Amino acid sequence: MPAPRTPAPATGPDPAGARSRPRRRGLLALLAAGAVLAAVLSVLVATRSGAGDPASGGCPVEALTCAPGQADPADSRSPSANSGSSAAGDAARTSGIERGTPTGKPAPGQDPAASGTASPGGGRCASFSACGFPDAHSTGPRLSLTPHRTGAMTVRKDGTVIRRWDITGSLDIYANDVTVIDSRITSDNWWGVNLRSGYHGLRILHTTITAVPGKGPDNGGVDYAVSNMGTSSIEVGWCDVSVFGDALSMGQGDLHDNYVHDVTPFRNLGSEWQHTNAVISNGGGSGGLTIRHNTLLNPTPVDQGASGSVGLFADTGPVTNVTVQDNWLAGGAYALYGGGQGATGVKVTGNIFSTEYHPGSGGYGPVAAWNAGGSGNVWSDNHMSDGRPVTPGATS
Predict the structure, then answer these.
(1) What's the pTM?
(2) CB 334 within 8 Å of CB 340
(3) Closest CA to 259 of 138, 102, 114, 121
(4) Contact between residue 145 and residue 164 where contact means Cβ atoms under 8 Å apart
(5) Residue 346: enclosing H or E segment and its boundaries?
(6) Cβ 171 vs Cβ 192: under 8 Å
(7) How far apart, in Å, are the Cα atoms of 191 and each of 73, 133, 169?
(8) Rounded to the nearest 10 degrees, how much is the dihedral formed by the CA atoms of 273, 136, 181, 311?
(9) What are the CA-CA distances from residue 129 to residues 230, 259, 263, 387 (Å)?
(10) Distance (Å, rounded) from C-alpha 341 to C-alpha 197?
(11) How far is residue 344 from each of residues 107, 288, 311, 350, measured CA to CA in Å?
């Protein structure tokens, strides 16, 4: 795709013009020009840093992430003020986008087995939002979007940035260091975003990835919101993900602060119920997988293909070097599959197993396939949402 175009910098008056005036007038003019220039520079610095912009709370629009304590950037101009560049609003603020709760869903779902206020690390939790976990209001695009009917789009240029696009289609990445930020993807393909083998550096941030149930290629189903076919780590953060059967699928990556919900069951092309997982790894990943501070919901009924909220499976190789930390897990046959025999370096700490779909978090319980004797495996400080500690059984 073509590189984003940016406006040429504005030109100001030539200070050298003052040389034709008397010395005193020229000096005064230079001092005045210097004051104006200093004021302009201070405004520019404040704009780029977010300082002095109460709407942004100190976080610049062009930032990939906000520092702790900074609010998301806020739009303050109408769409008509945009330059129309292909960067879909490079550093320009336009009218805001309202983050809403998914249609027909409560905001957010309450855990019927819990009461009281948020208290991660052993106390009761009324809901994932009450406990400070990601929801519809803290994920997805922060800014207004421009429609792009891309269809099945292939990205081949290194360093491509897709910002503020409302995509009807999907992205197939054959390039390095691609960033998708403050966007929305509505796919009818096998995936929303797919990174091909041999490429690296993909980042998907502040983006909604969804599909239309019944319109996908797998007998009406859609399989992967984000798929990593390679051996390099990718980052997925602050994303709102729904509908796809195996939402976040990879052996290596950094998955943080995401809201995965409304996973939709379907019969695949083989006429079998597709197994569903909010996060799935088939093992064999060499780059390490971190799953940190996500809301991972799998409401699929057990008799319609439910697998896990986090499914670590040794289908293509042993499960190694995985961290599952500080997540809200709910649903699946088991909420967590721990990698089974041969799993090593798997650390599961500080997670809350919610009873919002099943009394045991998953239909059959909170955890299966945990290898307690595996080298480097750690299980600690994991609780049900009503405060009960979760202790895994033997490897199954």
Answers:
(1) 0.74
(2) no
(3) 138
(4) yes
(5) strand 344-349
(6) yes
(7) 29, 25, 9
(8) -40
(9) 34, 11, 19, 17
(10) 27
(11) 38, 12, 15, 19
Phi/psi at 197 (5° precision): -60, 140
Which tokens go with 331? 């649903």
- Fill in the amino acid letter for 266: F
For 237, which DSSP code? E
Mean pLDDT by 10 residues, the chain (396 residues): 35 32 37 43 33 44 53 40 30 31 35 38 78 96 97 98 98 98 97 97 98 92 95 96 97 97 94 95 89 98 96 95 98 97 96 97 97 96 95 64
The DSSP element (H or E) to which 46 belongs, if any, is helix 23-49
d(Cα 53, Cα 60) in Å, to the nearest integer?
Answer: 9
Residue with tokens 């990556």, as numbered in its chain: 253
Length of the chain counted residue by residue: 396
Are residues 227 and 195 in contact, defined by beta-carbon separation less than 8 angstroms?
yes
Nearest residue to 228 via CA among 261, 200, 209: 200
Side chain identity at residue 189, one-letter code = N
Q: Hunting for tokens 């891309």 — which residue is that? A: 150
- The number of beta carbons lying within 10 Å of the beta carbon of residue 214 is 12
Please report, in angstroms and rounded to a whole number, the separation of the first and last CA atoms in the chain. Answer: 48
pLDDT for res 126:
85
